[in-house]
Specification:
Number of domains: 2
Number of strands: 6
Mean pLDDT: 90
Low-confidence stretches: none
Radius of gyration: 24 Å
Largest sheet: 4 strands, antiparallel
Number of helices: 14
Strand order of the largest sheet: 3-2-1-4
Oligomer: single chain
Shape: elongated
Length: about 375
């Protein structure tokens, strides 16, 4: 198999940085062993706990850099995850709530802030958000290493534990910096460095990124999905990594414009998801496949089979979107009273909101039919 020159360069750069990082980490780890408080069981437990907290802190700081920059750019908070800590905007109340994250695929951290206005500089503003994570990790690497080094000669155990915290934070942040800048992907997602250059390099790739951000901004700006720019959808669909999301926007547009046949055709493509996609993301796409089978196709067998795949993620949810799916399922299963009750419950929740997004306008349209 022929290896492209740029891929070979990336591999060599990754190898060199990995060797350098391993050497620095080994030296720091050896240095830690000389001054870390380990005289008794209590000190050993606290030292280990401090090291684990520092590791989590480095992850949290990286994602916090993304989050803070996104908010600074005027984007709307959606999700923040670092290990078991999860913070999200509740889809039912719109309030920001803390929750216990149990999805192992999100333990590495994620921060999501969404644009709500399509401006000429949207791509540039989003690029700042993307690159903020690696810059934050690099900053914590330098500050943590310097602060830890300054405290290595301290006598009190408390200061030596603080040195352990700074050193472990610095080491973890250094490897986070490498992980988000050297490779092009982590799983199915682009790394921060790869996404940044997709946004800023120009050409077709940057145009695809611009179109994708335009669709996101439109959907969260309060405009109807009837007016969604399908030219942007077609542009995004050219990218194999983003095609599934382009189909989701097309599906929503066809529902909003009362084109059930086209919506069904797109829904069939939505069911073909990559295995590496986190379950929480898969559920958001498969729920529309389930809805299409129940609401558009009147296929109880297909709808129920699809529901089994996402029941774990959606069964306890009581937000508008989940209630819509459950209402459609009840209706296709002959439980008309329950279908009406669920639809009316969701409509009552929408009525409490002062402004609806494009997606919520579509939700209301579909729920009124179900009710």
């Amino acid at each position: 198999m022929k290896i492209k020159k740029k891929h070979l360069t990336q591999m060599l750069a990754g190898l060199m940085l990995g060797v350098l990082g391993g050497y620095v980490g080994m030296k720091m780890g050896k240095h830690l062993g000389h001054f870390a408080p380990t005289d008794n069981l209590f000190q050993k437990v606290v030292t280990i706990a401090t090291a684990f907290f520092a590791l989590w802190f480095a992850l949290a700081f990286h994602e916090l850099a993304h989050l803070a920059t996104g908010l600074r750019q005027g984007f709307r908070f959606h999700l923040y995850v670092a290990g078991f800590l999860g913070i999200r905007r509740d889809p039912e109340t719109e309030r920001v709530v803390v929750y216990f994250n149990t999805d192992p695929q999100l333990f590495g951290g994620v921060a999501a802030t969404l644009p709500v206005e399509n401006t000429p500089d949207l791509t540039r503003r989003f690029a700042r958000l993307v690159i903020a994570g690696p810059i934050g990790s690099l900053l914590l690497t330098v500050v943590g290493a310097w602060a830890g080094w300054c405290l290595t000669g301290a006598e009190p155990a408390g200061l030596r534990w603080l040195a352990v915290f700074f050193f472990v934070s610095a080491i973890t942040s250094f490897f986070l910096f490498l992980a988000t800048t050297v490779p092009s992907r982590t799983g199915m997602f682009f790394t921060d460095r790869a996404r940044y250059f997709r946004l800023t390099a120009g050409g077709q790739t940057s145009e695809i990124e611009r179109a994708m951000l335009s669709l996101v901004a439109h959907a969260h700006s309060g405009k109807s999905l009837e007016t969604l720019d399908m030219a942007d959808v077609d542009t995004v669909r050219q990218d194999k990594d983003y095609a599934i999301y382009a189909d989701l926007y097309a599906y929503s547009h066809y529902l909003a414009t009362h084109q059930p046949e086209q919506a069904l055709q797109v829904a069939e493509r939505l069911s073909d998801l990559p295995d590496e996609m986190p379950p929480i993301f898969q559920a958001e796409l498969l729920k529309e496949v389930c809805f299409a089978a129940a609401f558009l196709k009147n296929d109880s067998e297909g709808a129920n089979a699809c529901w089994k795949k996402i029941e774990k993620q959606l069964a306890r949810r009581k937000d508008v979107s989940a209630l819509r799916i459950k209402s459609a399922l009840s209706k296709v299963n002959g439980e008309l009273a329950e279908a009406k009750r669920l639809a009316q419950q969701a409509l009552a929740m929408l009525d409490k909101k002062s402004m609806l997004s494009g997606g919520e306008l579509l939700e209301r349209q579909l729920l009124q039919t179900l009710a």
